[in-house]
Amino acid sequence: MSEAKTVESRPYHHGDLRRALVDAARRLLEAEGPSALSLRAVAREAGVSPAAPYHHFKDKAELLDAVAQEGWDILDTQMMEAKRDADGPHQLTALGIAYVCFARDNPALYRVMYDAARDKEMLPDDVQKNEDSAYCQVRNTMIAQGANPANETHLELATIAAWCAAHGLAEMAGFKQFEHLKEELGGERQFLEAVLEHVGLFTSAHREC
Amino acid sequence: MSEAKTVESRPYHHGDLRRALVDAARRLLEAEGPSALSLRAVAREAGVSPAAPYHHFKDKAELLDAVAQEGWDILDTQMMEAKRDADGPHQLTALGIAYVCFARDNPALYRVMYDAARDKEMLPDDVQKNEDSAYCQVRNTMIAQGANPANETHLELATIAAWCAAHGLAEMAGFKQFEHLKEELGGERQFLEAVLEHVGLFTSAHREC
DNA sequence: TTCATATCTGAGCGCTGTACAGATATCTTG
DNA sequence: CAAGATATCTGTACAGCGCTCAGATATGAA
């Protein structure tokens, strides 16, 4: 309470508690990691009572869904930028690298995103519906690089294969077992590129992360 | 208490509480899913007080580590069998399919395995040390299929790439988004094979799951 | 100005992981 | 076989969790 910001749209008491809660959650997530992300801690961080969030989210999972959605949006944006900055034949790898780098730079957020997905056994709906989504960007880039858009099934399988490889690498690139390889190859980026190159769907690229 | 089984090795009061706790955990995991796997529930299932587990495990994470270790052992065995039952050129895909099928058939256990890995930011040590581990089986199979064992780095990168793709597919194969593809391709197995084939490192195989 | 409604608080329930003192069973030593 | 050391297990307790609900409070509509 107290610090009611002078925003023009202040629907009710707090201003926009829903927004404030999601922001508080992301702050906590970055500072303390996923295990510290309790509903009560988020409420505390936002300066409200433990019961307040329940007027904006049905339960904890729904709050985390909102946090995860922001993660997907950021991922979409970063991949769009990566694709824009790469030339044609290197765009697919640029997308792959951007994906893995997003996970590396936002490990807690990435985990929240996939914890929600695993619980629901599905990715967010608009991953396949929104044409600007990371998923659709990969699909469209495959078409641009010569895949036959008419063979819908083949195209989708290739997209899924690339997505799976990128997700696996995103989750495991930070594992201690692979540190010696990063040193040997002269850096993390070289390691990521080398692994993606072995996947076959990707080709070598020259774009900083 | 009470039902002291007539085992020859009964070190102390319970018999082998450590063993009983891990078994209870796996029973709970299968019956109720990962979210029901509380230390207290495990103790309850094993018929002991909530504090009893602390004489065998430092904390909850250490109990889950023991559960996860059993998962890795089972995975090793199943992949060994899959490799044995496949002819040379199809062994790598057979390993990949076996990996994904293990995750499909033991989703809760697979999740415990990788939750622990993500927390520690590493796979279990013997994944790379034990020559019979799933990881080493993949590596050795790549050698058998023509990879140059002298080029250690290249070999390791290819193994990691295959592992990442398999892990990504293992986590996402059950997602609702891909159900229509499974139908279209005539079954889950066809879908899994098709995706792995797109990864490039794998080739088509003919082995039931 | 009055009233309905959306928002937030405070207290409370049953659950969790973990700590600790005390009881009990087993192993070891004489 | 007796006695003390030690490992094992119980009971109780504490703080924190997700979530519920009755009641207080601020807002928008009449």
Q: Major sheet of chain A, described briefly?
A: none
Helix run count of chain A: 10
- The radius of gyration over CA of chain A amounts to 20 Å
Report the largest inter-chain contact: A-B, 40 and 40 residues
> What is the subunit organization of this protein?
homodimer
**Low-pLDDT stretches of chain A:** 1-10, 204-209
Order of SSEs of chain A: HHHHHHHHHH
Shape of chain A from CA axes?
globular
The CATH topology of the largest domain in chain A is given as Tetracycline Repressor, domain 2
**Helix content percent band of chain A:** 55-70%
Number of domains of chain A: 2
Q: What would CATH call the class of the largest domain in chain A? A: Mainly Alpha
Provide tags for this entry.
10 helices; 0% strand; 209 residues; homodimer; disordered C terminus; Arc Repressor Mutant, subunit A; Tetracycline Repressor, domain 2; globular; mainly alpha; DNA-binding
Outline the structure in words:
- Chain A is an all-alpha fold and 209 residues long.
- Chain A contains ten helices and no strands.
- Chain A starts with 16 loop residues before the first helix and ends in a 10-residue tail after the last helix.
- Chain A binds a DNA duplex (30 and 30 nucleotides) through helix 2.
Summarize the structure.
The structure is a homodimer of 209-residue chains. Chain A is mainly α.
Itemize the secondary structure elements and their pairings.
The structure is a homodimer of 209-residue chains.
Chain A: H1 17-32, H2 39-46, H3 60-84, H4 91-105, H5 107-120, H6 126-129, H7 134-144, H8 152-172, H9 179-185, H10 188-199
Helix pairs in contact in A: 1-2, 1-3, 3-4, 3-5, 4-5, 4-7, 4-8, 4-10, 7-8, 8-10, 9-10
The structure holds a DNA duplex (30 and 30 nucleotides).
